[in-house]
Amino acid sequence: MELDNQDFQIIDLTPENIAQYGVCGYKDINKHLELKRKVEWFSKYYPKGLRIKALILKNGGYQGMLEYIPGEYAHRPVNAKGYMFIHCVFVGFKKEFKGKGFASLLIDECIKEAKQKDMNGVAIVTRNGSFMVKKDIFINKGFSLIENMKPDFELLVLKFKDDIKNPEFIKNSMDDYSEDLIIMRSAQCPYSVKNVDAIIETAKKLNMKANLIEMNDAESTQKSPCAFGTFCINNDGKIISYHPISNTRFENIIKAETNKKFA
Questions:
Q1: Of 49, 223, 233, 254, which sees the most CB atoms within 10 A?
Q2: CA-CA distance, 222 to 224, in Å (whole number)?
Q3: What totals of helices (H) and strands (E) does the chain contain, helices first?
Q4: Dihedrals phi, psi of 8, to nearest 5 degrees
Q5: Tens place of pLDDT per residue across the chain (263 aa)
Q6: Is 247 within 8 Å of 198 (Cβ atoms)?
Protein backbone atom coordinates (compact mmCIF):
# COMPACT_ATOMS: atom_id res chain seq x y z
CA MET A 1 0.00 0.00 0.00
CA GLU A 2 1.57 3.25 -1.19
CA LEU A 3 0.59 6.48 0.53
CA ASP A 4 1.29 10.05 -0.54
CA ASN A 5 1.12 13.21 1.51
CA GLN A 6 -2.56 13.61 0.65
CA ASP A 7 -3.33 10.47 2.65
CA PHE A 8 -1.89 11.61 5.98
CA GLN A 9 -0.97 14.61 8.07
CA ILE A 10 1.34 15.22 11.01
CA ILE A 11 -0.24 17.48 13.60
CA ASP A 12 0.98 19.09 16.80
CA LEU A 13 -0.84 18.02 19.93
CA THR A 14 -1.40 20.81 22.44
CA PRO A 15 -2.92 20.99 25.94
CA GLU A 16 -6.11 22.11 24.21
CA ASN A 17 -6.46 19.24 21.72
CA ILE A 18 -4.61 16.27 23.23
CA ALA A 19 -7.75 14.91 24.92
CA GLN A 20 -9.54 15.07 21.57
CA TYR A 21 -6.96 12.91 19.82
CA GLY A 22 -5.83 10.82 22.79
CA VAL A 23 -2.41 9.23 23.12
CA CYS A 24 -0.95 5.70 23.10
CA GLY A 25 -4.35 4.21 22.29
CA TYR A 26 -6.18 5.91 25.16
CA LYS A 27 -8.97 8.14 23.84
CA ASP A 28 -11.57 8.72 26.58
CA ILE A 29 -10.34 11.06 29.32
CA ASN A 30 -13.42 10.31 31.43
CA LYS A 31 -12.85 6.56 31.20
CA HIS A 32 -9.07 6.27 31.16
CA LEU A 33 -7.10 7.49 34.17
CA GLU A 34 -4.02 6.82 32.03
CA LEU A 35 -5.04 9.57 29.59
CA LYS A 36 -6.09 11.99 32.33
CA ARG A 37 -2.67 11.71 34.01
CA LYS A 38 -0.92 12.07 30.64
CA VAL A 39 -2.89 15.22 29.78
CA GLU A 40 -2.06 16.80 33.15
CA TRP A 41 1.63 15.93 32.73
CA PHE A 42 1.66 17.17 29.14
CA SER A 43 0.10 20.49 30.16
CA LYS A 44 2.81 20.94 32.80
CA TYR A 45 5.73 20.37 30.43
CA TYR A 46 4.33 21.83 27.21
CA PRO A 47 5.47 25.37 28.17
CA LYS A 48 8.96 23.92 28.77
CA GLY A 49 9.18 22.64 25.19
CA LEU A 50 7.53 19.21 25.35
CA ARG A 51 6.02 18.30 21.99
CA ILE A 52 3.95 15.41 20.68
CA LYS A 53 3.53 14.93 16.94
CA ALA A 54 0.57 12.77 15.93
CA LEU A 55 0.30 10.91 12.64
CA ILE A 56 -3.27 11.04 11.31
CA LEU A 57 -4.14 8.94 8.26
CA LYS A 58 -7.06 9.74 5.99
CA ASN A 59 -8.26 6.15 5.97
CA GLY A 60 -6.70 4.92 9.19
CA GLY A 61 -7.09 7.64 11.79
CA TYR A 62 -4.51 8.08 14.55
CA GLN A 63 -1.69 5.68 13.67
CA GLY A 64 1.46 7.07 15.23
CA MET A 65 3.18 9.56 17.48
CA LEU A 66 6.53 11.03 18.44
CA GLU A 67 7.23 12.70 21.79
CA TYR A 68 10.29 14.85 22.52
CA ILE A 69 11.46 17.47 25.00
CA PRO A 70 14.53 19.62 25.74
CA GLY A 71 17.11 17.35 27.38
CA GLU A 72 17.16 19.04 30.79
CA TYR A 73 13.55 17.88 31.23
CA ALA A 74 14.07 14.35 29.88
CA HIS A 75 12.15 11.70 31.81
CA ARG A 76 15.05 9.28 31.62
CA PRO A 77 18.17 9.15 33.83
CA VAL A 78 20.31 11.10 31.37
CA ASN A 79 22.36 14.28 31.27
CA ALA A 80 21.24 15.73 27.94
CA LYS A 81 21.06 19.48 28.46
CA GLY A 82 21.36 21.32 25.16
CA TYR A 83 19.97 18.37 23.19
CA MET A 84 16.46 17.59 22.08
CA PHE A 85 15.53 14.30 23.71
CA ILE A 86 13.08 11.82 22.18
CA HIS A 87 10.99 9.98 24.74
CA CYS A 88 9.19 7.65 22.38
CA VAL A 89 8.14 7.03 18.80
CA PHE A 90 5.48 4.60 17.64
CA VAL A 91 3.75 3.95 14.34
CA GLY A 92 1.10 1.43 13.36
CA PHE A 93 -1.68 0.54 15.76
CA LYS A 94 -2.76 -1.42 12.66
CA LYS A 95 -0.02 -3.57 11.10
CA GLU A 96 -0.90 -2.43 7.58
CA PHE A 97 0.54 1.01 8.39
CA LYS A 98 3.91 -0.22 9.62
CA GLY A 99 6.96 -0.09 7.38
CA LYS A 100 5.72 2.88 5.35
CA GLY A 101 8.37 5.35 6.45
CA PHE A 102 6.14 7.25 8.86
CA ALA A 103 8.44 6.84 11.86
CA SER A 104 11.26 8.33 9.81
CA LEU A 105 9.10 11.33 8.90
CA LEU A 106 8.21 11.89 12.55
CA ILE A 107 11.85 11.75 13.62
CA ASP A 108 12.69 14.26 10.90
CA GLU A 109 10.21 16.67 12.50
CA CYS A 110 12.15 16.50 15.77
CA ILE A 111 15.51 16.94 14.06
CA LYS A 112 14.20 19.95 12.14
CA GLU A 113 12.94 21.67 15.30
CA ALA A 114 16.19 20.95 17.18
CA LYS A 115 18.15 22.61 14.36
CA GLN A 116 15.77 25.57 14.26
CA LYS A 117 16.38 26.10 17.97
CA ASP A 118 20.16 25.84 17.50
CA MET A 119 20.44 22.88 19.86
CA ASN A 120 23.44 20.56 20.09
CA GLY A 121 21.64 17.63 18.53
CA VAL A 122 19.06 14.95 19.25
CA ALA A 123 19.36 12.06 21.73
CA ILE A 124 17.31 8.98 22.56
CA VAL A 125 17.47 5.84 24.69
CA THR A 126 16.69 2.69 22.71
CA ARG A 127 16.61 -0.97 23.67
CA ASN A 128 16.28 -4.45 22.21
CA GLY A 129 13.61 -5.42 24.73
CA SER A 130 10.04 -4.25 25.26
CA PHE A 131 8.51 -0.78 25.40
CA MET A 132 11.16 1.09 23.42
CA VAL A 133 12.09 1.44 19.79
CA LYS A 134 15.19 -0.39 18.58
CA LYS A 135 18.21 1.60 17.44
CA ASP A 136 18.19 0.61 13.75
CA ILE A 137 16.08 3.48 12.41
CA PHE A 138 18.25 5.99 14.28
CA ILE A 139 21.55 4.48 13.12
CA ASN A 140 20.23 4.77 9.55
CA LYS A 141 19.66 8.48 10.18
CA GLY A 142 23.21 9.07 11.33
CA PHE A 143 22.82 8.65 15.09
CA SER A 144 25.77 7.13 16.96
CA LEU A 145 25.67 4.71 19.87
CA ILE A 146 27.63 6.32 22.69
CA GLU A 147 26.78 4.38 25.85
CA ASN A 148 25.06 1.25 27.16
CA MET A 149 23.25 0.48 30.39
CA LYS A 150 22.15 -2.93 31.64
CA PRO A 151 20.35 -5.01 30.60
CA ASP A 152 19.89 -3.75 27.02
CA PHE A 153 19.49 0.05 27.01
CA GLU A 154 21.46 2.15 24.53
CA LEU A 155 22.00 5.91 24.43
CA LEU A 156 22.23 7.31 20.91
CA VAL A 157 22.95 10.83 19.68
CA LEU A 158 22.86 12.81 16.46
CA LYS A 159 25.23 15.74 17.00
CA PHE A 160 25.00 18.95 15.01
CA LYS A 161 28.29 20.27 16.44
CA ASP A 162 31.47 18.22 16.88
CA ASP A 163 33.09 20.17 19.71
CA ILE A 164 30.41 19.62 22.34
CA LYS A 165 29.98 17.12 25.13
CA ASN A 166 27.96 13.98 24.49
CA PRO A 167 24.85 13.29 26.56
CA GLU A 168 25.35 10.52 29.11
CA PHE A 169 23.48 8.11 31.33
CA ILE A 170 23.09 9.06 34.99
CA LYS A 171 24.09 5.94 36.87
CA ASN A 172 22.03 6.07 40.04
CA SER A 173 22.80 3.83 42.98
CA MET A 174 20.46 1.07 44.15
CA ASP A 175 21.40 1.76 47.78
CA ASP A 176 18.21 3.72 48.46
CA TYR A 177 16.08 0.85 47.16
CA SER A 178 17.51 -2.08 49.06
CA GLU A 179 14.48 -3.06 51.14
CA ASP A 180 10.99 -4.30 50.39
CA LEU A 181 9.14 -3.98 47.11
CA ILE A 182 9.32 -0.56 45.44
CA ILE A 183 7.27 0.45 42.40
CA MET A 184 8.34 3.66 40.69
CA ARG A 185 6.29 5.35 37.99
CA SER A 186 5.84 8.62 36.14
CA ALA A 187 2.84 9.97 34.24
CA GLN A 188 5.08 10.42 31.17
CA CYS A 189 4.25 6.84 30.22
CA PRO A 190 0.49 6.22 30.36
CA TYR A 191 1.09 2.48 30.55
CA SER A 192 2.63 3.01 34.00
CA VAL A 193 -0.88 3.42 35.45
CA LYS A 194 -2.27 0.12 34.29
CA ASN A 195 -2.08 -2.87 36.66
CA VAL A 196 -0.20 -1.09 39.48
CA ASP A 197 -3.15 -1.29 41.89
CA ALA A 198 -3.52 -4.99 41.14
CA ILE A 199 0.22 -5.55 41.63
CA ILE A 200 0.07 -3.85 45.04
CA GLU A 201 -2.87 -6.05 46.07
CA THR A 202 -1.06 -9.19 44.91
CA ALA A 203 2.01 -8.13 46.87
CA LYS A 204 -0.11 -7.86 50.02
CA LYS A 205 -1.44 -11.37 49.47
CA LEU A 206 2.15 -12.57 49.18
CA ASN A 207 2.96 -10.83 52.50
CA MET A 208 5.16 -8.27 50.78
CA LYS A 209 5.30 -4.63 51.77
CA ALA A 210 4.80 -2.59 48.60
CA ASN A 211 5.86 1.04 48.34
CA LEU A 212 4.67 3.18 45.43
CA ILE A 213 6.88 6.12 44.47
CA GLU A 214 5.31 8.68 42.15
CA MET A 215 8.01 10.41 40.12
CA ASN A 216 6.20 13.68 39.53
CA ASP A 217 8.86 15.62 37.65
CA ALA A 218 11.97 15.34 35.51
CA GLU A 219 14.28 15.70 38.51
CA SER A 220 12.87 12.64 40.29
CA THR A 221 12.67 10.59 37.09
CA GLN A 222 16.33 11.31 36.32
CA LYS A 223 17.17 9.75 39.69
CA SER A 224 15.63 6.42 38.71
CA PRO A 225 18.00 3.42 38.94
CA CYS A 226 16.46 2.11 35.71
CA ALA A 227 17.31 3.54 32.28
CA PHE A 228 13.65 3.30 31.25
CA GLY A 229 13.11 6.04 33.80
CA THR A 230 9.34 6.24 33.97
CA PHE A 231 8.68 2.79 35.45
CA CYS A 232 10.65 0.37 37.56
CA ILE A 233 9.97 -2.40 40.09
CA ASN A 234 12.69 -3.13 42.66
CA ASN A 235 12.54 -6.05 45.04
CA ASP A 236 15.13 -6.21 47.84
CA GLY A 237 17.56 -4.06 45.86
CA LYS A 238 17.13 -5.93 42.58
CA ILE A 239 15.28 -4.59 39.55
CA ILE A 240 12.71 -7.20 38.56
CA SER A 241 10.97 -5.17 35.86
CA TYR A 242 12.32 -2.36 33.72
CA HIS A 243 8.96 -1.48 32.15
CA PRO A 244 5.22 -1.74 32.95
CA ILE A 245 4.00 -5.31 33.32
CA SER A 246 0.74 -7.12 34.00
CA ASN A 247 -0.24 -8.34 37.43
CA THR A 248 0.08 -11.94 36.21
CA ARG A 249 3.61 -11.28 34.98
CA PHE A 250 4.51 -9.69 38.31
CA GLU A 251 3.22 -12.69 40.26
CA ASN A 252 5.16 -15.11 38.05
CA ILE A 253 8.38 -13.11 38.53
CA ILE A 254 7.98 -13.11 42.33
CA LYS A 255 7.28 -16.85 42.41
CA ALA A 256 10.33 -17.51 40.22
CA GLU A 257 12.54 -15.35 42.46
CA THR A 258 11.22 -17.12 45.56
CA ASN A 259 11.91 -20.53 44.05
CA LYS A 260 15.48 -19.44 43.24
CA LYS A 261 16.00 -18.27 46.80
CA PHE A 262 14.97 -21.58 48.32
CA ALA A 263 16.32 -23.88 45.60
A1: 233
A2: 5
A3: 7, 13
A4: -150, 165
A5: 444 555 888 999 999 999 888 888 778 777 888 888 999 999 999 999 999 999 888 776 767 899 999 999 999 999 999 999 999 998 866 676 677 778 999 999 999 999 999 999 999 999 987 788 999 999 999 999 999 999 999 999 999 988 999 999 999 987 777 778 999 999 999 888 888 999 999 999 999 989 999 999 999 999 999 999 999 999 988 999 999 999 999 999 998 987 776 55
A6: yes
Class of the CATH domain delimited by 175-261:
alpha beta
Instruction: Name the 3-class secondary structure at 138.
Output: helix
**Nearest Cα to 175, choosing from 237, 227, 240?**
237
180: which residues sit within 8 A by CB, 6+ positions away? 208, 209, 210, 211, 235, 236
Exposure b/e, 86-97, CB count within 10 A at least 16 = b: bbbbbbbeeeeb
Assigned fold of 8-169? Aminopeptidase (3.40.630)
Residues β-bridged to residue 183: 212, 233
Return d(Cα 247, Cα 10) in angstroms, integer.
35
* Alpha helices per DSSP H over 87-225: 102-116, 136-139, 196-205, 218-221
